[in-house]
Amino acid sequence: MNVESKPTPIDQRLFLIFIVTFATMTVFEFVGQFIYPYPPD
Questions:
Q1: Closest to 7 (Cα-Cα) out of 15, 29, 23, 30
Q2: Mean pLDDT score across all residues of the chain
């Protein structure tokens, strides 16, 4: 039996989407502190 644990393209795509989404949320939160210096209601 030749069973290897190689990630499938679907797994790689989901991981890439997760990383990009998390990075985007972090950047927006960081920039938002300068655009809106006051806390929301």
A1: 15
A2: 80
Q: Which residue has the higher pLDDT, 39 or 9?
A: 9
And the tokens for 15? 């991981």
The string of DSSP codes covering 1-41 is -----PPPHHHHHHHHHHHHHHHHHHHHHHHHHHH--SPP-
% the chain with pLDDT above 90: 32
Q: Is the pTM of this model over 0.70?
A: no
* One-letter identity of residue 8: T
Q: Compute how many other C-beta atoms are within 10 angstroms of the C-beta atom of residue 32.
A: 11
Q: Which amino acid appears at position 22 of this protein?
A: F
